[in-house]
Design a protein that fits this description.
It contains three helices and no strands. It has helices spanning about 5-25, 30-60, 65-70. Helix 1 (about 5-25) runs antiparallel to helix 2. About 80% of the residues lie in helices and about 0% in strands. It is elongated, with a radius of gyration of 14 Å. The protein has one domain (about 5-60). The protein is mainly α.
């Protein structure tokens, strides 16, 4: 994958992570329903971590906290 593709995937997953976090923290959703989605949330987090490692290797530097939390310029 190119650096651009890695960044795009990261940004898309970051948006999914935010939506998933909001869903999982929304107590109006029944707990069993929220628990059902926890494994998918973990997959998103794991992939984000993998992408951080790959992007840092491609860029030759560590990502900043703002880049990790707020997304990457594409």
């Amino acid at each position: 994958m190119s650096l651009l593709e890695l960044k795009q995937e990261y940004n898309e997953l970051l948006m999914r992570e935010a939506a998933a976090e909001a869903y999982l923290n929304d107590e109006s959703n029944p707990l069993p329903k929220r628990m059902k989605w926890q494994p998918e949330y973990k997959k998103i987090i794991d992939r984000l971590n993998e992408l951080i490692v790959q992007i840092e290797a491609e860029m030759g530097r560590k990502l900043t906290k703002n880049e990790i939390l707020g997304g990457l310029d594409v």
